[in-house]
Amino acid sequence: MSPRQRLSPAGRRAQLLAVGARLFAARPYDDVLMEEVAEEAGVSRALLYRHFSSKHALFAAVYQQAADRLLAETRLDPADSLVEQLVQGIEVHLDYFVANRHAVLAANRVLAGDPVIQTIMTNELDALRTRLLAVLPLAEEGGAREAVSGVLKSWLVFVQVLCVDWLAHETCTRTQLRDVCVGAVLGALRPLLAEDPGARPSRKRILGGDVEDCESAPSQG
Q1: pLDDT tens, position by position, for the chain (221 residues)?
Q2: pTM of the full predicted structure?
Q3: According to DSSP H, which parts of the chain are helical?
Q4: Which one, of 15, 131, 4, 150, lies nearest residue 73 by Cα?
């Protein structure tokens, strides 16, 4: 056991989450023992269980923390094209998936159907959908927002399933996986949007002012 450190309750919880995240990333869910978490953290099992009543509770807290971090790191910049925004968001998630393969597989397979874990994933997907809706060039006619929202909801689930399957089998390269995900949503959204989703944003949309629409000029070189 590591030497016992005196920490505040918040500090101790953060330490236990960090240890749990490391162990859940390193090995399958069933192989992680709460006794091992306590030993790695240098605390008694009684103290660990005061913060987290079970391994499931610890894993759920680790996964919630990861979902919050992924949302914070997913940047949707109106100065970038939709393609650039999608690529950035997918790369952020793939970085986490690759580094935390066992944790992702546990959440989506070992604990598939668990209401707590499913709620965490659903909330993250809903937040991503809301943020994407805010940057998409929606058509003016009625119903466009609802139609695009439905497409995004289905696409996000598609990406989740595809990425989990890729983690388990790696049937293509990471770049191919990313491009399949981006291409799928661009093709699905194109009939519903006021502008080509693959185009760069206009100056009017970037600046938000009353200026003449002007597509970004292609780079010279």
Answers
A1: 455 668 899 999 999 999 999 999 999 999 999 999 999 999 999 999 999 999 999 999 999 999 999 999 998 887 888 899 999 999 999 999 999 999 999 999 999 999 999 999 999 999 999 999 988 888 666 678 999 999 999 999 999 999 999 999 999 999 999 999 999 999 999 999 888 887 666 544 444 444 334 444 334 33
A2: 0.84
A3: 9-26, 34-41, 45-51, 55-73, 82-99, 101-105, 115-135, 144-169, 174-189, 203-207
A4: 131
Structure tokens at 46: 């009684």
The CA angle 151-153-159, to the nearest 5 degrees, is: 95
And the tokens for 60? 């759920």
- Close Cβ partners of 86 (under 8 Å, ≥ 6 residues apart): 181, 182, 185, 186
The single-letter code of the amino acid at 117 is I
